[in-house]
Specification:
- Helices cover 27% and strands 25% of the residues.
- It is of the alpha/beta class and 393 residues long.
- The strands form two sheets. Strands 1, 2, 3, 4, 5, 13, 14 and 15 form an eight-stranded mixed sheet that branches. A seven-stranded parallel sheet has the order 6-7-8-9-10-11-12.
- The structure holds zinc ion (ZN).
Length: 393
């Protein structure tokens, strides 16, 4: 039998060995054994994701536990790049980037909450966030207002917007313009012209649906890389023509590089019959975004994984839905172009989901209920190689 002293010595030796092993571990963190879906790398298989120094180092099966200082056991789970939501509103205190990080959203774009007059406060939100927040500056000086920020077109002040971009080049990744008639009256085309002029090489994101002008007239003014959000808006002036088919001008815009985004939101942005008609015609979104706000947290939107689950219900394969919030979202926003992938060398932003099976009710923007069979639920999030404190695993 060992003496107490011998036992303590042995225990200390084991502890030292443990520390030595941890010190020698090749990787800081390994997300182990999940189904890794990384459309940017063409990967959809069970594998381990190895992280070191805040970067992805390897995605391959069979990484030894001894090589990892820390492990997230993702067996039976879906592992994806951290989600990129290209249309959110984090300008008000009722919705913070931190709240969206818990959903797996490691990068986001605020879509026009602020304009030239109030951009500094939103930039401070972006600077303080752990996740990567970029901003589409509202072409209207006030940013979004309840009464409609472009009812007086003078609010679309090109000089003021250009100065704001100049001041915050690192944070402003594009220009947002809201075009519904209750926002812009009959000034929609002039508003797009001004937004396009301000943006220069940056993308313009256009909020469409219930506009004064028909969608083809608006699309004419766009260039490659511009983003149309709320593409499944109900009429007036939806993306469908009289026969219920997608307008040829919409397809032509996509063919010349205009991007089409969901922007779920709460009101006037998406109804199931419009999605059904468009997708029956093969017109699926390039990107899936939430357009989430504080009130959207508990009403019709909830979170980006819920919006993704809606598209699973609507018939989109899982890998394609994931592509819409990773590879494609990063491709839509040049400032986030290095994200949305698990390629070795990429920033180590990772999300882990459970794909729950059952009966889940989803609503569109008129509260029409449909039942889906699958729902994505976030269980762990890694940003810059660090597990977030809210991680469920
Ligand atoms: Zn919005």
């Amino acid at each position: 039998m060992r003496t107490r002293r011998e036992f303590l010595t042995a225990a200390a030796a084991i502890a030292l060995a443990g520390r030595a092993r941890a010190g020698a571990a090749r990787y800081d963190l390994v997300v182990s054994g999940g189904r890794v879906i990384d459309p940017a790398s063409g990967i959809d298989r069970v594998a381990d994701v190895a992280i070191e120094g805040g970067r992805i180092r390897a995605v391959q099966p069979g990484i030894a536990a001894a090589d990892a200082a820390e492990v997230i056991d993702a067996r039976g789970k879906i592992v994806t790049p951290g989600l990129v939501d290209i249309h959110v509103h984090v300008g008000a205190p009722d919705l913070t980037p931190a709240a969206l990080l818990r959903d797996g959203v490691t990068a986001m774009v605020d879509g026009g909450s602020a304009g030239a007059d109030n951009i500094d406060a939103l930039v401070r939100v972006a600077q303080a966030a752990r996740n990567r927040v970029r901003i589409f500056l509202n072409v209207a000086r006030t940013g979004v207002t309840a009464g409609g920020e472009l009812m007086d077109i003078a609010a679309a002040d090109v000089e003021a917007a250009a100065r704001a971009i100049e001041r915050h080049r690192e944070w402003i990744a594009g220009v947002k313009v809201r075009l519904s008639q209750n926002v812009a009256g009959d000034h929609d085309l002039e508003a797009v012209r001004r937004a396009r002029k301000v943006a220069g090489p940056l993308p313009v994101m256009l909020h469409v649906g219930q506009t004064f002008s028909p969608l083809p007239k608006i699309l004419e003014l766009l260039q490659r890389g511009d983003i149309v959000t709320h593409i499944y808006s109900p009429p007036p002036h939806s993306l469908l023509g009289d026969g219920g088919h997608v307008l040829p001008e919409v397809r032509a815009a996509r063919a010349r590089g205009v991007r089409f985004d969901v922007g779920n939101g709460r009101n006037g942005h998406i109804t199931w019959p419009i999605v059904d008609a468009a997708t029956k015609d093969g017109f699926w979104p390039d990107t899936i975004s939430s357009d989430i706000t504080g009130p959207g947290r508990t009403f019709r939107v909830f979170d980006l994984p819920t919006v993704l689950s809606k598209f699973l219900m609507l018939g989109m394969p899982l890998d394609r839905a994931i592509a819409c919030v990773t590879r494609e979202a990063a491709a839509s926003v040049p400032a986030l172009g290095d994200l949305g992938t698990l390629k070795p060398g990429a920033p180590a932003d990772v999300a882990v989901f459970e794909l729950r099976q059952g009966a889940f009710e989803f609503v569109d923007n008129v509260d029409a209920k449909r039942t889906g069979r699958q729902k994505l639920a976030t269980v762990a999030v890694v940003i810059n190689g660090k597990k977030t404190s809210s991680a469920g695993l």
